[in-house]
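Kindly go through one protein, given below as sequence and tokens. The question is how this chain folds according to its tokens.

***
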Amino acid sequence: MEIGQLCVKTAGRDSGQFCVVVENVDDVYVLIEGNVRRKKCNIKHLEAVDKVLKVKEKASNSEVTKALEKEGIKSLKKGEKRTKKEKSKKVRKVSKKEPKKESKKEESKKEKDSKEKKK
């Protein structure tokens, strides 16, 4: 990945957030900055977007933030609430309950009640 490459995080707590590649650490890892914490990230956890921003190598947070705002990407400030991800709801398996068997006393009461109603 080249420096200034605009990406979207696909894994971890920052998934779905925009970031910019600031430095190539080695073949597998890059240093990212933007709407995520500045950190080393595996290339497998990034999805590249078609845009490349004009950013120097090892650019500061303010430089990256300005570049993101020029592209129309809203940057999140420290302490600002992020949008919550929707969690998939687990569906419970509910078994149908069979009606309870009535005791002999209850059966006899029902029979008496039905006989009285007929009279």
User: Anything to note?
Assistant: The CA atoms of residues 72 and 119 lie 85 Å apart. The beta strands are 5-9, 18-24, 29-34, 39-42, 46-52. Residues 5-70 form a domain with the SH3 type barrels. fold (CATH 2.30.30.30).
